[in-house]
Structure prediction request, 536 residues.
Amino acid sequence: MTLSRRLLIFGGLALAVWGMGYGIWYAVFIEHQTLDGLGSALATGFMRAAENRMAESQTALSDAASRSFVYVRQVDAHGHWIGLGLLLLILGIAFDRVGFGERVRTYLAIALLAGAVTFPLGVLLETWNRGRGPQAVAIIGSALVILGLSGTALGFARSNSD
Amino acid sequence: MSIHEGAIGSGAAMAQSAERFAPRSARRIFVISGIGLILCGMILGDIFAAFILHPSANRIGENLLAATRAVASHDPQAAGAAFQSIGGLLENRGTKVDAHSHMIGFGYVALLVALLQPYVAFSESIKKFLAKLFLLGAILLPVGVFLIHYVGMAGSPFAAIGWASVFGDFGGFLVWVVCLCELAALAKYFHAQSAVRVSDELLNNRSWAARTLLSGGTLLVLIGFLHGSYYAGAHLFRYEARDSELLSAMTTQAAAGDSAGAVQAVADYGQLQGAKAVNVAAHAHVIEFGVLAILLAFFQPYVFLSEKWRRIWAVILLIGSLALPVFVLLELRWGLLAGGLADGGGLLVIIALFGMLVGIWRYTGKLDSSAGVA
Prediction:
């Protein structure tokens, strides 16, 4: 098996297993509490407004927005790790059909794997730090995936029929 | 290699291919159930979109309006009740989305496991047993999840989990066990010192339909990724800020007696949720269809139809795969017309999948079906 295929197949498998493990941990210990808290904060925001306690209402709605921000990114990271892992695995099976030399295929595989790891990681880091750093990690990760996919699509198109 | 040796090799490969894809073989069970699950999941998704998604969105809007009216009339109990009702509607919608996506997801896993069958170091009888167990689990989970909203806690001995959820979780457990067994058998195959390395004709196929599906599928995934990046960069943070602003506006304007302002905020909130939903749906669907096209590229040698029909189904699948997400995105501008065209795209994918399924069903072991078949 070529290095590029090994990188994609075993890297994709590891990433999918990691994403599923993170998802199970998240579903058991975090998700229900987050959703309960989100729903409760929204209801509290409206109930306090109905009682004309506007400052408390606004605090509750800000809390809901913050919880929603975190929830969306946690679920996105989980979904993207698994999805990209499976995509890498499937591409790895067919990677010998990419019409480039093994060196270029290895670079493409590295870009895909590095992007698939760092893009969801950057998204997840945004829940701890809302500065530019995590966003930059996510952007670099997604750029690597886009670069790898573009090269792979071109390679498939270039491959000759036997 | 001489022509004679090549012909013998080719004949042996055909015989091996026919044996691997014999009626009721593990690979055939995985392939047919995989495509069947994807078809059922897509049809469920269409029914869900038409009969549940839009009415549910309207009812959520009505409940938000009720909540703002409760704020205006200083009735906190009514505001709480409106949010309780929204929670129920979201649960109904969430379980339907879960059933739809898990059915399709399990279909993809089934196709992937089918592809790996020659490398699974089990006897054919164990492989078949695992394939049937997978199918049972892959049906139990989405059906169980679908029924959660209707069964509720009826007759359940548990405090927080109903029977539908128990059966759904058991289905998920079965799928997980099968995947674990398949992985263990794969590891056994690759670690075997004296194993005879097998070759698989599915990985060597270079037909036009296979290459088109492979390139087209990768392009679809790329388009989905580009769109997702654009959405995250240009809209996600703005939409989140706007979401918070509108919720705040609903409460402050209702409390101040500005009912028109509060109603407008609810309407704007609905529009915003629609914009988020179409972007996420377009992004997810184009990538899923891309992965489906790549997976189907591998199985083209088993599509027992003439080359012309293989090409037709491949092209129709790719057209539908692009049309659905594009028209979903246009729903905000074109309304029902775009919705109808998106459904048409989904229908094209369903028809193409069904066409390929019929071809795979007809497969008898003859690899090159370019002559002599319809």
